[in-house]
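Q:
My hope is that you can spare some time for a protein that puzzles me. I hope you can help me see how the letters and the tokens relate. Thank you; the sequence and its tokens follow:
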Amino acid sequence: MVRRKKAAISVILFLFAILVIGCDNNQSVNADEESNNEEEQQEQESATKKQEARVVSTTVAATEIFDALEIDLVGVPTSYKDLPSRYDGVTEVGNPMSPDMELVKSLDPTHVFSVTTLQTDLEEVFDNVKIDATFLNFQSLDNMLNEIEQIGDQFNRTEQATELITSIETRLKEVEARVEGKEAPSVLILLGVPGSYLVATEHSYIGDLVKRAGGVNVVQGEDVEYLASNTEYLQQANPDVILRAAHGMPEEVVEMFDEEFQTNDIWKHFKAVQNDRVYDLPEELFPTTGNLAVVEAMDELLKMLYEE
């Protein structure tokens, strides 16, 4: 009798062990299936987002970055500048400073991009037509690289974004290495628009490039990007180099600068003018916001600052 009881207990324990192992295996299988299902779901959602994205870019700089990241667009800015061939035939939505909101809306976009330098002027305009626009910060090189990284994450282009960022950073290090040990020139940056001009601080995009190139902006201690011009104060700063940037209508702005420097007697007292170190910056390399021409811009800037 005792032996039978022991045998019965052994059988029960054996069956229980098999049951436990079976449950563990089932749980493991179920966990693996759930994990695979989650991965598949994420991949499907990612692919769906990629397929459904209808992106409108309203500035040239942003459009060039989307091209470099291999992102298709349904709307691009109207510009006298050449846009990437990827967007041949894509609907133009108007000037970056005043895009056609009804046209933008008609494209049924999922994403609309502008830049922070236009946010004050455009944010309310976008809100009025119920378009949730994103304003990219290209006001410095670091900010632009951060935005490229975020766009890459948002549109599943992390590999392209990383490659682009690494390429820019590597080439910039090579450019910046050329100024090591050189005496830093003092620099005045003028931003001209048709009819007037402003002074750019180190917080502007061009000011950021000058700082990276080893130049010292004659305007210090300011928090804004641009200031009204005070020629008497600027003359006292007596910069080694004057850089003139044109925005909007380059040819007209250059003519305005030439007339100002010829007719306003105070400019002839500037050391930079006396030494013929006044340079007009080509707008395609030196816009008011960051763009992918930054390395070429730095190359040109070093020639101006150090007479290479």
About this structure: The chain has eleven helices and eleven strands. The radius of gyration is 30 Å. The CA atoms of residues 44 and 154 lie 15 Å apart. The chain has a mean pLDDT of 87.
